[in-house]
Amino acid sequence: MNAGAAELTRSGANRKGDVLMVARLAAIQAAKMTERLIPLCHAIAIEAVEVGFEWIEGEPTDPDVSQTRVLECRVTVRTTAKTGVEMEAMSGVSVACLTVYDMLKSVDRGMILGPIRLISKSGGKSGNFRVSDPPADG
């Protein structure tokens, strides 16, 4: 996102309200409603949803921007059901990101969302999964 959007998010001074608080609520709501959003997705009793945000400063991907401002969102969902909750976690991340965009689009319509991916999962019929670390050269 651009500097203005990042500053409004960090300061909590956005005219629509606290961006991260609203995005956190959106992520929880989306995780709980995944079976309504994704056709054929099972309804699962969710026991916990944790949402975290972290700022990552990095090299620009756009030559016209002096610094990239990245807000990373992670959603962790827990259940004791027999199936995994990765769809609930990724739905939560997706809707959180869309909420951030919606709240800041008046300042930055060029904001980039994604990638969205599963980092790890444990339990369920398919067992455990953990994404391997990306290679050093990208």
Shape: elongated
Q: Give the uncertain stretches in residue-range form.
A: none
Domain unit count: 1
End-to-end gap: 21 Å
CATH architecture: 2-Layer Sandwich
Structure description:
- This protein has helices at residues 3-11, 19-32, 34-37, 86-104; strands at residues 48-58, 68-78, 120-121, 129-130.
- It is an alpha+beta fold.
- The chain has one domain: Alpha-Beta Plaits (2-Layer Sandwich).
- The chain has a two-stranded antiparallel sheet.
- β3 and β4 (129-130) form a beta hairpin.
- α2 (19-32) packs antiparallel against α4 (86-104).
- The protein starts with a helix and ends in an 8-residue tail after the last strand.
- The model has no long low-confidence stretch (mean pLDDT 88).
